[in-house]
Specification:
By secondary structure, the protein is mainly α. It has 7 helices and 2 strands. 30% of the residues are buried.
């Protein structure tokens, strides 16, 4: 992609790079490692990808379509979006994330970057704002995932060196 590409294409490209990083954060991890709690909050690697799915649904379904979180089938609060259920696995959470990202792309496809979405609690927002918010949010969580992944992988070395 070149810097002369349309803005929407550039935003989508950068967002897709971060989406891939989020997805890849679970590569090669066991179910236990993906669920391992290393900080006092609900943040785990698997929980981060589950939360990223929630974020996709909030910004590209709720904000674009105006459907409620109940209609979409997502948690009502951010905190709940990190909570893992017994049936959540690396495979199931990745599949849900992949589907949410595909649905997000489809929802945004007919919209102009300066088009306004009206389903967010903040009120009407241009799609450009949604992309910028998503870039910030997913990039931030990719950083969290990098650190957690580094800790998980380091614990493998420590465990095998004992």
């Amino acid at each position: 992609m070149t810097s002369s590409a349309p803005l929407k294409d550039q935003l989508e490209e950068f967002l897709d790079q971060h989406r891939q990083g989020m997805y890849d954060s679970l590569d090669g991890l066991t179910e236990e490692e993906a669920r391992r709690s290393l900080v006092p909050s609900l943040t785990t690697l698997l929980g981060l990808v589950k939360h990223a799915t929630f974020v996709e649904r909030v910004w590209f379904d709720e904000a674009v379509s105006g459907r409620s979180r109940a209609e979409i089938g997502i948690p009502t609060t951010v905190e709940e979006s990190f909570a893992l259920e017994p049936q959540d696995t690396v495979e199931s959470v990745r599949a849900a994330y992949t589907q949410a990202c595909a649905d997000s792309r489809a929802a945004a496809a007919p919209l102009d970057v300066d088009g306004v979405v009206t389903g967010n609690r903040r009120g009407p927002l241009p799609l450009r704002w949604v992309y910028l918010h998503m870039l910030r949010e997913i990039a931030q969580h990719c950083g969290h995932a990098d650190i957690l992944r580094e800790q998980v992988l380091a614990s493998r070395s420590a465990d095998s060196g004992s």
